Amino acid sequence: MYRRLLKPLLDRSGAAALLLLFSPLMAVALAAVYISLGRPLFFTQRRPGLGGRLFTIYKFRTMDERCDAGGNLLPDDQRLRGAGKVIRSLSLDELPQLYNVLRGEMSFIGPRPLLEEYLPLYNGEQKRRHDVKPGITGWAQVNGRNAISWKQKFAYDVWYVDHLSWRLDLRIALLTIKKVFVREGINAEGHVTVEKFNGNN
Q: Cα(62)–Cα(193) distance, rounded to whole angstroms?
């Protein structure tokens, strides 16, 4: 009953309430992005959700569009600067995903929605992460986030699918609040974002 009825109800009602509560903070973040990075204000990308179905995820933009002499985007650590760096460090870039939760495309808690290009790279066990809606935060995020290996991350995701309950979601929510304040695991070692998944070979 929690998985099918109560969790979706809590997600949508909670997202609506938090969008109202955080609207002043989101307005400040939008202004900071505009002043520091200009347009576009949001980062949007197609991501696979429940059952692998694609949806558009929303985040505040935190990187500029600077390129090298060959027209290629500079490395992430060189493009993350100014207000974008502060927004990323405080996890404020995730706030627009409340809109995805309100639309029923995401949950507050579940496996993080990854890149569409990863879908054909998953093995049978890893594909099970799509048996539930993706989340803003999840079991992998409170157990290392971007600082753990892909193998461990997928193991945490599948474990969550098998053990989903209101008690586990409450535990993850409380641990997420702690992680945001401590700012643990935001970046992989030596990177400002996690390295790409290249399959299981």
A: 11
